[in-house]
Specification:
By secondary structure, this protein is of the alpha+beta class. The chain contains 7 helices and 15 strands. It has 2 domains: 87 residues, Cytochrome Bc1 Complex, Chain D, domain 2; 236 residues, Beta Barrel (Porin). A hairpin with a 6-residue loop joins β12 and β13. The radius of gyration is 24 Å and the shape is elongated.
């Protein structure tokens, strides 16, 4: 792959690329398939159109079924006109209107507010409107938000245990790791994510936990390295079903390296995240580089991918999302081995509103596994923009 006489840097780069293509062939093929699927879907949709069929008028249907409460402009009618005190959503507010995917809106329109633990004042229209009419109304509702910078909620796919999502979030996540080696470590990592504007997001996390030391003291309790980061949703295209973001993190050496709670280095970790939709299925990928600014932590390249699909109990019930992640990393020094891990996992919605989520999986070493044992990993996620922790049950 590299010509004779290449420099050491070029030779090392070629070695990394050989390993990349060796271990990434299957995900790359899947990635290409997912990119092509929207084109095939468009062709099938065109082939299935009935000659002479007139499209449904979403604006007219909205006026007939929704405007009495939500207003012709989507802002909600004044209290004196609607006759009840319940606060109504503002469909022109892109921060609100862009976050949820069409199927979630469809569920509330079809079944009424209680299907997602909202007020009963939102009636069920399932007996009055067909699915096609509901989606025509949704198409009109989407026109009230006139700022296309906001990524649609369809890209807010289930969060894998390790791969960073391309969608900016307002959420708090409690990550938990249980080591099965001699350390018997139990590490808890609270993660806070706050969205800024249509595309930006900041995050902060700091782990803490307990691990066996093997000495007379038995165990140590401590805090790990503080991480702060920023993510920006650079591109999103709902017609093609894909989006990607760029971002980076700064890791500060606040943990005790000697006790195994920190890396002892200040690190920069730039990354790119990608998502491709395929109906209820999805493909996510993240490319990351770790650079040590201070200390002795090794520089490394990291590739993470996740493939999964969401199923529901019945048509509108609890969501279950089985996923599999493949994690690959390699230090940038010449001759370093590639480390591969496989992470099967299951995410489930715990409450009716589905903004409290649990994900449980096992990280299994596959390559370069000497001295490494499986880990039990999980998180509890609270999407606090959709309500308080005790709401929606």
């Amino acid at each position: 792959m590299c010509p004779a006489g290449s420099s050491d840097a070029a030779t090392e780069f070629c070695a990394v690329m050989r390993l990349f293509f060796k271990y990434r062939a299957v995900p790359l093929c899947l990635f290409g398939l997912f990119l092509a699927l929207p084109v095939f879907a468009d062709q099938v949709g065109e082939a299935n159109q009935v000659d002479g069929a007139r499209p449904l008028d979403g604006a007219k249907l909205y006026e007939q079924a929704c405007a009495a409460c939500h207003g012709s402009d989507g802002r909600g009618r004044p209290l004196e006109e609607r006759g009840f005190a319940l606060e109504l959503p503002d469909f022109t507010d892109c921060e609100f209107a862009s976050r949820e995917p069409d199927p979630d809106w469809h569920a509330v329109i079809h079944e009424g507010g209680p299907v997602r633990a909202f007020d009963r004042m939102m009636p069920a229209f399932g007996d009055a409107l067909t699915d096609e009419e509901i989606y025509a109304i949704l198409g009109h509702i989407r026109t009230f938000c006139t700022n296309d910078n906001w990524p649609r909620g369809e890209f807010n796919v289930p969060k894998p245990l390790f791969t960073e999502k391309a969608f900016p979030e307002d959420e708090t996540v409690f990550n938990v790791r249980l080591d099965t080696d001699d350390s018997k470590a139990v590490i808890i990592e609270p993660l806070y994510e706050k969205r800024f504007g249509p595309r930006g997001m900041i995050e902060a996390k700091v782990p803490f936990g307990r691990r066996q030391t093997g000495g007379d003291d038995g165990a140590e309790i401590g805090f790990g390295d503080l991480t702060v980061g920023y993510r920006y949703a650079l591109y999103h295209n709902l017609d093609r079903g894909n989006a990607f973001s760029i971002g980076g993190e700064v890791v500060l050496p606040t943990g005790d390296e000697d006790e195994g709670f920190g890396a002892g280095s200040t690190k920069l970790e730039p990354h790119v995240s990608f998502v491709q939709l395929f109906g209820d299925a999805f493909f996510q990928s993240q490319l990351q580089m770790d650079f040590a600014v201070t200390g002795s932590a090794p520089d490394k390249g990291i590739v993470r991918t996740a493939i999964g699909r969401t199923f529901t109990e019945g048509e509108y019930g609890r969501a279950w999302s089985p996923m599999v992640e493949l994690l690959a990393s390699r230090e940038t020094v010449s001759g370093a081995d590639v480390t591969l891990d496989l992470v099967p996992q299951m995410q489930v919605a715990l409450n009716t509103r589905q903004h409290i989520l649990l994900n449980v999986g096992v990280r299994v070493p596959v390559a370069n596994s000497q001295g490494r044992k499986s880990q039990i990993v999980m998180y509890l996620l609270w999407d606090w923009f959709d309500g308080g922790f005790r709401d929606g049950w």
